[in-house]
Amino acid sequence: MKKLIYPVLGLAMALSLQSCIDNWKAKYYNEKTLVDDVGVSLIKNGLEGGMTEIEASQLAVKNSTNPQVVSFAQMIITDHTKADSTLKWMEYDKLMTEKDTVSGEHQEMIDSLAKKTGVAFDKAYLEMMVKDHEEAVDLFTEASDDKNQTIKTFAADNLPMLQMHLDKAKELAGAK
């Protein structure tokens, strides 16, 4: 009987260790997450879009001479910084690990924007904000029906803000 205890304990320890390794893998290798594809898309694309819009808006604060555009850019920075911090928490909480960086396409847009000044800058910046916010509204609208309550609540809570950003960007772009 004594000889049987050690193999049974060893097997129990091996099984418990395996479950810990599975969670570690999920967290660090993204083999499994706690959200569906819509949730992954919201977190990943939401973070990237937010970082892009913050970076472009920081340029607008420095480069624009239009006080309405500067005010809009400051609002974008404030609102998206807050939303991004929540998205980063959700990314961690839902066992997702991604590199939180701006894509090559978005970086090209920012680099192109950085070369512009005056009215040309404002026009390009506002066009970028309209395009990005149209995509964000679509993404958040889809996610507001997600089965994961955290994703659903976050999307539904932030959708009005994104719609307001889109409307304001269109209004300012039309005023040009």
From TrEMBL:
Lineage, uppermost ranks: Bacteria, Pseudomonadati, Bacteroidota, Sphingobacteriia, Sphingobacteriales
Domain named DUF4142: residues: 43-172
Organism this protein belongs to: Mucilaginibacter mallensis
InterPro entries attached to this UniProt entry: DUF4142, Ferritin-like
Pfam families per UniProt: DUF4142 (PF13628)
PROSITE patterns associated with the record: PROKAR_LIPOPROTEIN
This protein's name: Putative membrane protein
